[in-house]
Write a structure and sequence with these properties.
The chain is α/β, with parallel strands linked by helices and 155 residues long. Helix content is 34%, strand content 20%. It is globular and about 45 Å long.
Amino acid sequence: SFLHCLEYLLNLNLAISLSKVGMKMESNEIHQIIEQNQRLLQNLNTQRHCECEIRQLISEIIGAKISDSVEIRLPFFTDYGRNIKFGKDIFINFNVTMVDLGGIVIEDHVFIGPGAYLISVNHMIDPKRRKELILKRVHLEKMFGLELVLRFYQE
C-alpha cells in the first residue's frame, strides 16, 4: 500500500543534523522565518492575486526570485520555505504541500499534480529519539510528473 511504500522510503533516510545539510541557523531563527512565512502564506492563499503577485509572494517565502515561467496554482503550502529551489518552466497545480527543511529542488520542465506532498523531513520512529529529525533532500528532475508517481503508489 501507499503507506508501506512511504514508510519503507523514510526508513532508507539517515538521521543527520541541520548543520550537515548546510543549515547553520539557530532554532529561534528558523521559527521566526516559519512564523513570517505563515503570515505570507495566509495572505497568498486567502486573497485574490494575479500570477505576478503569486510569484512575488512565493519569492519572499523562499528567499529567492522565481522565474516568470513558473506557474503555481493556489492554495500552496510550505513550512519553512527557504530550502525550496525552483528551475524554469515549472507547473505546480493546486493544493501542493512542500515540507522543505531538508531541501527541495525542482528542476526545469517539472509538472506537479494537484494535492501532491513533497516532504523532506521526518522524525525518528523510536519514541526516545522522536525530537531528532531525519532530513533528506527531495530532487525532482527534468520532465518529472509527480502525479504519476503518487498515483502509482496509491493503486
